[in-house]
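Weekly puzzle thread! Below is a chain. First person to post its structure in C-alpha cell form gets bragging rights.
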Amino acid sequence: LALHLGGVGSNWGAILLATISAVAFATILAVVAGLTLASSSSFAHDIYANVIKKGTATEKQEVNAARWATVGIGAVSIVLGALARDLNVAGLVALAFAVAASANLPTILYSLFWKRFTTSGALWSIYGGLVTAVGLVLFSPVVSGKPTSMFPDVDFHWFPLENPGIISIPVGFLLGWLGTLLSKEEPDAGKYAELEVRSLTGTGAH
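Winning reply:
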C-alpha cells in the first residue's frame, strides 16, 4: 500500500514504505520494552521484595532481581512467540485484551466509583475474572476443534465463542460485587476520598 501511495517504481514509494516500517518497528520495540520493564519491576518489588524477602530486601537485591526477571521474561516471551508464529496475531491480541479486561476492568471501575468496594471484592473480581477468561479460552475453538486452532487434531472445546470477554467481564463485575457484600471488611472512606482526588486531579499520583 505504501508503495502504491508513493508511486510504484518511484523513490517516494520506497521512502514512504521505509518510514512506515521504521515507525512500526519503533512502536513494537517501545511496547515490548515497556512491558518487560513493568513485569520485571513488579516481580522485583512485589514478589521478590515483599513475598520472598518479606520486606527485608535491599535496593541492590531488588535491582539484581529485576535484571534476572528481565532475562527470564524475555526468554519465556521468545519461546511463546516462536510457538505462536503460525497463529492469528490479531486473535491473540483480542484474547489478551479480553483476559486483561476481565481481571482489571471491574476492579478499576469499582475502585473509582463505588465507595463500599473493599479489598476482598478486588481479589474476587481480579482472580475470578482471570480464571473465568483463561478457562473459557482453554475450552474454546481457539485451542481445539478447528483447523486454525492451536491443537487442530483434537477437539475438547465446549465454549462456542473465540473471545471470552462477553462472559468473563460480567463475571468479574459480579464477583467483585459479591465479594464486597460478603466481606466483613469495613470500607475506608478516607482512602476512597484520596483515590478520588488522585483520579480527578492527578495530585499525588507520582
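Puzzle host: Confirmed. Bonus trivia for everyone else. The two ends are 43 Å apart (CA to CA).
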